[in-house]
Amino acid sequence: MCLSESTQHNTSVPRLASKAFSTTVRQMKNKVPDRQKVFLEDNGLPVHIKGGSTDVLLYRLTMTITLAGTGFSCYWLLFACMPKSKA
């Protein structure tokens, strides 16, 4: 393998890579404007619920975990501040 063959091979690699990436980018559709329309609609829903049923489930799960953690923390704070009985 001579030096000129190696140089020719190395220059074709970037062209192949750029061609592969440029063809995949052209095939993908930009979904951002469609998603913006959904979130900018004035339908009376808060923004954290506008995404659909998955957002509602994630919101409820998050609120349940938050409330359970707050209640658990308050329970142990009250338990810790009560004096222990001397039996």
Automatic annotation (TrEMBL):
The UniProt record lists the keyword Aminoacyl-tRNA synthetase: no
One Pfam family this sequence matches: COX7a
GO cellular component, one term: respiratory chain complex IV
Keywords per UniProt: Membrane, Mitochondrion, Mitochondrion inner membrane, Oxidoreductase, Transit peptide, Transmembrane, Transmembrane helix
GO biological process: mitochondrial electron transport, cytochrome c to oxygen; mitochondrial respirasome assembly; regulation of cardiac muscle tissue regeneration; regulation of oxidative phosphorylation; respiratory chain complex IV assembly
Pathway stated in the Swiss-Prot or TrEMBL entry: Energy metabolism; oxidative phosphorylation
Subcellular location: Mitochondrion inner membrane
Domain of life: Eukaryota
Transmembrane segments: 57-78
Family according to the record: Belongs to the cytochrome c oxidase VIIa family.
Name of the protein described by the UniProt record: Cytochrome c oxidase subunit 7A1, mitochondrial
Species in which this protein is naturally found: Cyprinus carpio carpio
Taxonomic placement: Eukaryota, Metazoa, Chordata, Craniata, Vertebrata
